[in-house]
Amino acid sequence: MVEMIQIIFYQYKNFIFYIIIGVSGIVLDFIIFYILTTKFLLFYQYANFISVSAGISNNFLWNALVNFKVKDKIIKRFLSFYIVGLIGLGISALFLYLLIDIIRQPVFLAKASVIIIVPIIQYILNKTISFRKTENI
User: Fold this and answer.
1) pLDDT mean across residues, the chain
2) Distance of CA 133 to CAs 43, 46, 53, 68, Å?
3) pTM of the predicted model as reported, rounded to 2 decimal places
């Protein structure tokens, strides 16, 4: 049983670490979003942009240094990672609009729903683009 768990962990360790790091980014994203919308009364789309940007930056640093262990072309990798993050932001903004303004779901429930969908898409893109181990980034 232990061997099986070790094999599974080894096979999916980048994804597992990506999820763990992603959770830290989600927590940071959610805290900043909450503060900006409740304390500063910032419009939810502006707050979402700021909070998602903070989460993207957090996740890039941890993924680059700890998970994928890449230190070359760090600026290009960050820009690639950030672009993938912006794609996620676009998806997030669209879903937030649909859930909050059209369906009338509570803001924080909508944000929680979006946080489940977007990271899966971003992992696939980041693994194949931002953290690939080739010379052509």
Assistant:
1) 88
2) 40, 35, 25, 9
3) 0.73
